[in-house]
Design brief:
single chain; four-stranded antiparallel sheet; 13 helices; 36% helix; globular; Kynureninase; pyridoxal phosphate; hydrolase
């Protein structure tokens, strides 16, 4: 099939989500395809930050813990996020980092296996996000109870890797490099069949693909808010604990914010009821406040509509690259099957880093991951079909002209 820029413009004109783009501050002349790494700024975030800093902090000072609702902000944000991932109210708090929350969830998952001393293995992918592996290995070493991490190389190896020794299956729903999406329900059922507990990392799927944590019978989940949820750089992450696990949820980071009565200042820790058990220390209110601006945009649409546009955008990008960049050594590593694809597309190129730097210099912002992977993220809230056409047109020019520096120095963040 042959595509044209005019056809892409027509798709934008008919797009029911097109108006949402106006709620984001997108720099002129920039095609932003890196929302899978850092979401664009909602315009409302600037006003919100100014209000929190000048009024709530500046004038109302410490009273704002009560008068501005700071004290329950983590839970209120969690309830706003819940519909996007198939959770119920009172099951999510927005707090800490993804890595810290993963530590909590893994610790709680292992605690559920305390009566099964033979279960000492955490199964995950070798190509999982490295921090997830590091946290699992760190927790296993810190416990000093014989826990180990078993790394598998492909999704096809997961069934054989789960056995009587498996305590936890820890997977990232959508792979950060390839965009491969796991079947959460099927793998959770498989884990449960073998007596294992599941921990899901939703960093690259929350706000990008529909999911149903309850329908999948998942055990625990974590995720970040600064990618597709547009919460701001380094925004607090979230942790999900279903109601069925909250009564027994135990994690070692027992800070005062998770205490049943924090201002009793008791010397002994007594966990609060419900999802508050997943909290630790005092919350970063300014950063949390900005997360709400991104979530408020999602309230104007639904995940089904976002998913339909995401698949249309990624289908178009794959088709255009393969049509217009034919003859160049670009290879698709993202699944073509819709059920296995997140909201990003990754291509390899022998000089992927250099090509990506050339694209960025020309106003097309994606990013690079080893080995040789150029990642392009598609955020349906603000990515247009014309963006896709123009991005591929610039990619074609860069490749045709070999307008990239193979000796380009690597930046600290790629």
């Amino acid at each position: 099939m042959t595509y044209s820029r005019t056809a892409c413009q027509a798709l934008d004109a008919a797009d029911p989500l097109a108006a949402l783009r106006e709620q984001f501050d997108l720099p002129a002349g920039i095609i932003y395809l890196d929302g899978n790494s850092l979401g664009a700024r909602p315009k409302a975030a600037l006003t919100r930050a100014q209000h929190v800093i000048t009024q709530e902090w500046g004038k109302d000072l410490i009273k704002s813990w009560n008068t501005a609702g700071w004290a329950d902000l983590t839970k209120r944000l969690g309830d706003k996020l819940a519909p996007l991932v198939g959770a119920l109210p009172g099951e999510i708090v927005v707090t800490d980092t993804t890595s810290v929350n993963l530590f909590k969830a893994l610790a709680a998952a292992l605690a559920l296996q305390a009566d099964a001393p033979a279960r000492k293995v955490i199964v995950t992918e070798r190509h999982n996000f490295p921090s997830d592996i590091y946290m699992a290995e760190g927790l296993a070493g810190w416990l000093e109870r014989g826990h180990t991490v078993r790394l598998i190389d492909t999704p096809d190896e997961i069934p054989a890797a789960i056995g009587l020794d498996t305590a936890v299956l820890m997977l990232t729903h959508v792979n950060y490099r390839t965009g491969y999406q796991h079947d959460m329900a099927a793998l959770t059922a498989l884990a449960h069949q073998h007596g294992a507990v599941t921990v899901w990392d939703l960093a690259h799927s929350a706000g990008a693909v529909p999911m149903d944590l309850h329908g999948a019978q998942a055990d625990f989940a974590v995720g970040c808010t600064y990618k597709y949820l547009n919460g701001g750089p380094g925004a607090p992450a979230f942790i999900w604990v279903p109601q069925r696990h909250q009564g027994t949820f135990h994690q070692p980071l027992s800070g005062w914010w998770g205490h049943a009565s924090p201002f009793s200042m008791a010397s002994a820790f007594a966990p609060c009821d419900g999802i508050g058990r997943a909290l630790c220390g005092t919350q970063p209110i300014v950063a949390l406040s900005l997360v709400e601006c991104g979530l408020d945009v999602f309230a104007q649409t639904d995940m089904a509509a976002l998913r339909a546009k995401s698949l249309a955008l990624t289908d178009l990008f794959i088709a255009l690259v393969e049509e217009r960049c034919a003859g160049h050594p670009v290879e698709l590593v993202t699944p073509r099957a819709h059920a296995r694809r997140g909201s990003q597309v990754s291509f390899t190129h022998p000089h992927g880093y250099a090509v990506m730097q050339a694209l960025i210099e020309r106003g097309v912002i994606g990013d690079y991951r080893e080995p040789h992977i150029m990642r392009f993220g598609f955020t349906p809230l603000y990515t247009s079909f014309t963006d896709v056409w123009d991005a591929v047109d610039i990619l074609r020019q860069v490749l045709d002209e070999q307008a990239y520096d193979v000796h380009a120095a690597r930046s600290a963040v790629t």
